[in-house]
Amino acid sequence: MGRATNADVKRMKERIAAIKEAHPNYQRILEFFEKLLLEQLKIRAQVDCRVPEISEDSARIRAKEGFPMLSKGDFSFDPHLAARLFRSICRIAKRENEKLKAEVGKIERALRRKEIDLEMCLPKALEGDHEYLSQIAADVGIDRGVMSFLLHTTIKPFVEVTASHLKDKVDEDMWDKGYCPICGSQPLMGELRGEEGRRIWACSFCGNQWRGKRVMCPFCENSDQGSLRYFYTEKEKAYRIDICDKCKRYIKTVDSRQLAEEIFLPVEDIATLHLDILAADKGFKREAFNFLGIF
Amino acid sequence: MKLTRRTFLKISGATAVGIAASSLGFDLSPLESYAATLRKDLKSAKETTTICPYCAVGCGAIVHSINGKVINIEGDPDHVINEGSLCSKGASMYQLSAANPNRLTKPMYRAPYATEWKEVSWDWALDEIAKRVKKSRDASFMTKNAKGQVVNRTNGIAHVGSAALDNEECFMLQKLMRAWGLIYIEHQARI
């Protein structure tokens, strides 16, 4: 979704409701996720971000060489709007469970005491400076996972709006890589889309979706069909776990041809955590994390 | 730092590493129980790209298999010729696999005036075909036509090719039929 319309939001809510009904185990986690998404969408409508100028020539040359259009530092955000979203997310998170209540409380206190500076941390999260953020978390004594979750959930709408403005500049015929043509990040989840079953990857960072190769590991670009497999169950035929025996990583894929409703890949990713558990069981690793930061 | 493609990949690959494993306090045990119920039904399948065996267009297909047994065949969306679509014949390729219980695996014979088909051995069928071809060809072979021109042909036999034949098989059959002197050489796709 670029700028989500009311119809988009309605369909997303319907999909979440359908999953919750089919899988009551996912009720809590999806309700929480839905609240976050709605909060992000609210902010997204107000985001007026600076989109980096990229000439067609430069986009073509970068794509030809396998470089994405932007590096993470090229994305920007409005500090006031971001601070507002950060506070809303803190408010939602604190109500969710004891752990979040305690950890978010600690982070809010540290912010008040100026032990953490949001305007410093958000750009670091944007650039992916994990060492810096780990250090801060350790210094102040807060959970690294919770801090990361709050920061990334805050910057996401800004990043997604920027990416949606650049989407038209991606030449699909020039790009069949396993990483995002806009920001260079790894895919969060895959889809087999349309009657022909085109392979679509959804970016874990900027939310962009791009067309990739059907039979290829997006992480190590292995396309040897002897070492690529997928796990599936008859009970959930629309979902599969694509695995690479060479690099031992996996990515979940939803075959949307087998589902009646419209799907939203970040939602499908959360609603298939049990597949992550099965993949981890089999000794495979996940590359890009979702908001929960697990597996 | 000079950013080469390799260092770039190293940087982007590092993004996920720092995020600590955490479930944000959510109780995932119900999901673990659910995963446990699926564990024994987990199947491992393979995708292999191939070319449709039928006509000369050469459409690409993806064959899904488990331990060598075909479970599904679909058009290959990355194939330059067909971009994922298949004609109705190509889409039925799955019926060629061992998964189709109606697929014939032995030659069938229906004797003249008989109403039932019966299974016969390959040896019997091939000998019988050879015998009848020889008989018809000997009886109908024509060295010269009415104008006295050399034709070396037989009008007593016709050949109908199958839509399931590939290019190479068609090539061989064409050579064989021409060598026998057939001129009525047809293909099922034109009928």
Q: Topology of this protein?
A:
The complex is a heterodimer of chains A (295) and B (191).
Chain A: H1 6-22, H2 27-44, H3 56-64, H4 79-94, H5 98-112, H6 118-127, H7 130-140, H8 144-166, E1 187-193, E2 198-203, E3 209-212, E4 228-233, E5 236-244, E6 249-255, H9 265-270, H10 273-281, E7 285-286
Parallel strand pairs in A: 1-6, 6-7
Antiparallel strand pairs in A: 1-2, 2-3, 4-5, 5-6
Helix pairs in contact in A: 1-2, 2-4, 2-8, 4-8, 6-8
Chain B: H1 5-13, H2 29-39, E1 43-51, E2 60-66, E3 69-75, H3 88-91, E4 108-109, E5 118-119, H4 122-140, E6 141-144, E7 150-161, H5 167-180, E8 182-187
Parallel strand pairs in B: 7-8
Antiparallel strand pairs in B: 1-2, 2-3, 4-5, 6-7
Which features does this protein show?
heterodimer; A: alpha/beta; FdhE-like fold; 45% helix; 14% strand; globular; B: 191 residues; alpha+beta; N-terminal domain of TfIIb; three-stranded antiparallel sheet; three-stranded mixed sheet
Going by helix content, strand content and strand pairing, the class of chain B is alpha+beta
- Total beta-strand segments of chain B: 8
The span between the termini of chain B is 69 Å
Q: What low-confidence regions of chain A span 5 or more consecutive residues with pLDDT below 50?
A: none
| SSE succession of chain A | HHHHHHHHEEEEEEHHE
The proportion of residues in beta strands of chain A is 5-15%
Structure description:
The complex is a heterodimer of chains A (295) and B (191). Chain A has helices at residues 6-22, 27-44, 56-64, 79-94, 98-112, 118-127, 130-140, 144-166, 265-270, 273-281; strands spanning 187-193, 198-203, 209-212, 228-233, 236-244, 249-255, 285-286. By secondary structure, chain A is an alpha/beta fold. In chain A, strands 1, 2, 3, 4, 5, 6 and 7 form a seven-stranded mixed β-sheet that branches. Chain A folds into two domains: 6-168, no CATH class; 172-286, FdhE-like domain (FdhE-like fold, Alpha-Beta Complex). In chain A, α2 (27-44) packs across α8 and α4 packs across α8 (144-166). The longest helix of chain A is centred in the middle third of the chain and has 23 residues, at 144-166. Chain B has 191 residues and is an alpha+beta fold. Chain B has two domains: 46-96, N-terminal domain of TfIIb; 108-190, no CATH class. Chain B is built from five helices and eight strands; from the N terminus they run ααβββαββαββαβ. Chain B has helices at residues 5-13, 29-39, 88-91, 122-140, 167-180, and strands at residues 43-51, 60-66, 69-75, 108-109, 118-119, 141-144, 150-161, 182-187. In chain B, β6 (141-144) and β7 (150-161) form a beta hairpin. The N and C termini of chain B lie far apart (69 Å). The chains are: A alpha/beta (295), B alpha+beta (191). Chains A and B meet through α2, α5, α7, α8 and β4 of A and α1, α2 and β1 of B. β4 (228-233) of chain A pairs antiparallel with β1 of chain B.
